[in-house]
Structures are given as structure tokens and as C-alpha cells.
Amino acid sequence: MRTVTLGFAWSYRRNTMATISVISNEGALESASAVLEVTATNPEYNQPALRIIQKGTVGGAASIGIDDPNPDIEFVETGQVSPAGKYEIAVQSDILQINGRNAENRKFEPIVVFQRVAAGGNVGIRTASQFGGGKGVIAIANASVAPSVNPAGGGVLYVEDGALKYRGSKGTITVIAPA
Q1: What SS3 string covers 60-86?
Q2: Reported pTM
């Protein structure tokens, strides 16, 4: 890890909020880096490393704001047997995505996507683009493996070869909509 000196500023003006800024302009770095890192180092305590408490009563303000050409938040599961999971919440081209991958894979795959209403208002499950030209639709990609075990106390909704199917707890498979 390389240590650099960062610009640091704190300001307060009457009728405005106190602001602390950490500014980094290091240019190209050899690997992904963080401008600000918060680390909890005592393994004896299971407490959050960062907590944000907002006392506002009006609402509508974001507790965390990210202004970035491709904003995302990544969740990395540590201390698990490899390959552990990595997930991200990302925004890309008017689509909010929840993506996942294993830690040894570099490419995230969409799990669920949501489009803004003005961009189509679609929801995709395991797909980010197969909406058939529709607006306000839900798209479900084909199951990579159809369910083969009866779910206890419920059912499984899935798509196989383009047909929407339901498998109930007694093993009955119902084709809701043929391909």
C-alpha cells in the first residue's frame, strides 16, 4: 500500500452545514484504491465500521449520495470458503441493477434490474435487455436448471424454453403460458 498526502478541508458557514472534504488527485494508480477507508480492527466485537445517523424530520434527503459515471456499491463476503460471493448494486444507462458473481470471477451478472419509468419502467430477472420492446413489463430469463425437487410449503415460478411454469409443493408442474 502506498501512502499519499491528501488535501483536507473543513468548513462551516452560518446557515449551511459543516463539510469535511477529502480530495485525492493521484492520477493513474497500479490497482483499485480507496480515497477513504474505514477499518474496524478488533475481531472481538461485531459492530459496524461506519454508521450514518440522520436526524432530519422532513425526509427526501439521501443519507449517502454517489455522483459517478458508473456508480455502484460492492458487497464482498469475507471469511467464507472460496469462491465466496460478491454482489453489487449499480446504476448503468438508466437501469438500477443488483448483480452477483463469485470472488474468482471478474464479471458481474445481473440478478434483478429495474428501469426508470421514463426509460421503459421494466423489471428484469436474470436479464437486463430482453423486454420484447415492451414498457412496464417484467422479463424472466430461462432457468439455467429447471427445479427438480418439490418445494416445501410453497411453489417455484420459472421459465423453461420460453414457457412460464409453476412447480407446486406436490410436484405438479403447471404451464401458465406456453412459449
Answers
A1: CCCCCCCCCCCCEEEEECCCCCCCCEE
A2: 0.73
